[in-house]
Specification:
Length: 175
């Protein structure tokens, strides 16, 4: 299969002309919780792409790559992930995963927790390029668009009933 570049794959300006991580500068995100009341409070936190890279380094080089098949069902494979400049991730999946990624370029990567009770790292991304012949040289390049650290809420957490999880945004190309 020849190399294919996905148009508007998260490079330069994002949707509605918003600058994404490759356009430079920090990304503004909304995060924090008011655990005493179990509600969310708004607080702007400046997070740059380097924080995502640090989290990926901490979680390791193997993740689950999630695509959607032609029948609409999730397709998950576990494989190595490489960091590529400028701010892209590259995976080397099989033919079915490449076909899914080209046809439906909104994908996710999931790194499980590194310790009991720890956070999973979930990265949403857009496919920017896919290539390969099917003879073991397949590659899919993705541009991260959002990343969160996620774990189930503890049973002693007052917000657990209302929210069921303890989630921390690491990176987002959304304002």
């Amino acid at each position: 299969m020849p190399s294919r570049v996905i148009p508007n794959g998260g490079l330069g300006k994002g949707p509605a002309g918003r600058a994404d991580a490759t356009a430079g500068g920090p990304i503004r995100t909304e995060a924090s919780s008011n655990a005493a009341r179990g509600t969310l409070a708004n607080m702007s936190v400046s997070v740059d792409l380097a924080s995502l890279r640090e989290e990926i380094d901490r979680h390791g080089s193997v993740a689950f790559f999630l695509t959607v098949g032609s029948d609409g069902r999730p397709h998950s494979v576990q494989l190595g992930v490489d960091w590529s400049e400028p701010g892209r991730l590259v995976v080397h999946p099989g033919n079915s995963t490449v076909a899914n990624a080209v046809a439906r370029p909104l994908v996710s990567l999931l790194w499980p927790p590194t310790e009991p009770g720890g956070y999973s790292l979930i990265v949403d991304a857009t496919v920017t390029e896919a290539s390969g012949t099917g003879d073991g040289d397949n590659a899919v390049s993705v541009q991260p668009t959002k990343a969160v650290l996620h774990r189930p809420a503890r049973s002693d957490d007052p917000g657990a009933v209302a929210h069921g999880s303890d989630c921390v945004r690491v990176f987002s190309d959304q304002s």
